[in-house]
Write a structure and sequence with these properties.
By secondary structure, this protein is an alpha/beta fold. It folds into 3 domains: about 170 residues, 3-Layer(bba) Sandwich (FAD/NAD(P)-binding domain); about 110 residues, 3-Layer(bba) Sandwich (FAD/NAD(P)-binding domain); about 110 residues, FAD/NAD-linked reductase, C-terminal dimerisation domain (Enolase-like, domain 1, 2-Layer Sandwich). Helix content is about 30%, strand content about 25%. It contains 15 helices and 21 strands. The strands form 5 sheets. Strands 1, 2, 3, 4, 5, 6 and 16 form a 7-stranded mixed beta sheet that branches. A 5-stranded antiparallel beta sheet has the order 17-18-21-20-19, with helices on both faces. Strand 1, helix 1 and strand 2 form a beta-alpha-beta unit. Helix 1 packs parallel to helix 9. The termini are far apart. It is an enzyme of class 1 (oxidoreductase). Belongs to the class-I pyridine nucleotide-disulfide oxidoreductase family. Its EC number is 1.8.1.4.
């Protein structure tokens, strides 16, 4: 059968693949996107959007409880069924027709099915009906298949049919009890969400909560989880799992066993590259793909790996950033335009190395960008740490009666610029982009002195940091 030919083929129609395809089309290239599940991918249906939808009701309720005058009007707790119904609306009922219409409008061709390489630039797509369609790319193929939940090799774990993050975000009802393996971002967010639904939650972490975050942020989140009724057990690991009449029982290396109606595995991610036929390209299957800063797989002049699949920064927003760089590079190379891959060019995903923003939507929110104090020290930077209690700021006082939060800035003393920031507190995600801009722009702190924060807002923390840095204050 003669293969259909396109300038660019994108494997995976999640947010990352959509952005690569859009950039290619904008560059005047005929583009095909291949998707085996839903157009819109993990973020739209099983990750970012539904998870934040499940967390929001409790967040809104806490905000009301934090303010006298609103607190008195609150008469109940989170309604799980209403929360799930709202989540369904935000996930569009797992119907991707709106995003398919966007592909049509944009001029991106869609082929549904599983993609498998059959040689350089050659792909066979197997549809649900078993039919196979060969396609080929004139210029580039971009792998945007993302990552999947890692299932640890624990005796009996697979037999109890544990939840992954997909199950947790798409569940129809809240279980009576939930044991969560892992203590990272997914684990803490889902612990917070399900605890708000009345589920008895136990978090089991081999190491600490939110490993790699600033200690003050870890302490605030751990304390909040425990206040909400979550049992947090760290320094232990699951030895085995089995189903009993009471539920799933987990034997631990330290302490008593844990029994729960459902078990959520949130111990990490693996690359979704195992069934792509990468062996035909002499690439290992099931591994993360190594790329340069233009997202081109090393050793190839036509193959790109964008988003989670390259393991540079596992987040939707960073994947979309990579997609913009990769799409621009693909179009430029196809047109014979030299690609500048030096730091901060339009074709290089430079921010992956030093300015990756992340938000953990727990109570309190944790918003970070750049390096922590420990990471900066380990990197040999000469740093100064600026700490400030957010409750001392006027904007915090008007926002809540008992505001609790903290902010830390990491300054590179040799250059006088910000290289890291961590915020912990209510709605601090909205403070993050200013820090990201300061780090990416390498704005001198002396210039930031002239960026005046509005009063009364929590953004005044910027002024307080600078006052501390200058040795002044009010």
């Amino acid at each position: 059968m003669t293969a259909r030919e396109y300038d660019v083929i994108v494997i995976g129609a999640g947010a990352v693949g959509e952005n690569v395809a859009d950039a290619a089309v904008q560059g005047g290239m005929s583009t095909l996107i291949v998707e085996a599940e839903l157009v819109g991918g993990e973020c739209s249906y099983w990750a970012c959007m539904p998870s934040k939808a499940l967390l929001r009701p409790a967040s809104a309720l806490r905000a009301a409880h934090d303010v006298g005058g609103a607190r008195e009007a609150v008469t109940g707790g989170v309604d799980p069924s209403a929360a799930f119904a709202r989540r369904d609306r935000i996930a569009h009922g797992w119907d991707d027709s709106a995003q398919v219409r966007w592909l049509d409008k944009t001029g991106i061709a869609l082929l549904r099915g599983l993609a498998r390489f059959d040689g350089p630039r050659q792909i066979v797509v197997a549809g649900d009906d078993g039919a196979e369609t060969p396609v080929s790319a004139r210029h580039a193929v971009a792998i945007c298949t993302g990552s999947a939940a890692l299932l640890p090799d624990i005796p009996g774990l697979a037999d109890i049919a544990p939840w992954t993050s997909r199950d947790a975000t798409s569940a129809r009802t809240a279980p009576r009890s939930l044991a969560i393996l892992g203590a990272g971002l997914v684990a803490t967010e889902m612990a917070a969400a399900y605890a708000s639904f009345g589920t008895e939650v136990t978090v089991i972490g081999r190491s600490g909560v939110l490993r790699g975050q600033e200690p003050f942020a870890v302490e605030l989140v751990t304390e909040s989880l425990r206040r909400s009724g979550v049992t947090v057990r760290t320094g232990t690991e699951v030895l085995s799992a089995r189903r009993t009449p009471a539920g799933a029982t987990l034997e631990l290396s330290a302490g008593d066993p844990v029994t729960a109606e459902e078990v959520l595995v949130a111990t990490g991610r693996i690359a979704r590259t195992g069934d792509l036929g990468l062996e035909t390209l002499a690439l290992p299957t099931g591994d993360w793909l190594d790329v340069d800063d233009t997202l081109r797989v090393r050793g190839f002049d036509w193959l790109y790996a964008v988003g989670d699949v390259n393991h540079r920064a596992l987040s939707t927003h960073q994947g979309k950033y990579q997609a913009r760089a990769a799409g621009a590079a693909i179009a430029a190379r196809a047109a014979g335009i030299p690609v500048d891959d030096t730091p901060w060019s339009a074709y290089a995903a430079t921010a992956d190395h030093s300015a990756v923003p992340q938000v953990v939507f727990t109570d309190p929110e944790i918003a970070t960008v750049g390096l922590t104090a420990d990471a900066a020290t380990a990197a040999g930077r000469s740093i100064r740490i600026l700490d400030y209690d957010l409750s001392w700021i006027g904007g915090a006082t008007t926002r809540a009666d008992d505001y609790r939060g903290h902010a830390r800035a990491i300054v590179d003393e040799d250059r006088g610029v910000l290289i890291g920031a961590t915020f912990a507190g209510p709605d601090v995600a909205e403070l993050l982009h200013a820090a990201t801009i300061a780090i990416v722009g390498e704005v001198p702190l002396e210039r930031l002195w002239h960026a005046v924060p509005a009063y009364p807002t929590v953004s005044e923390v910027w002024l307080r940091w600078l006052e501390e840095y200058r040795g002044t204050g009010t």
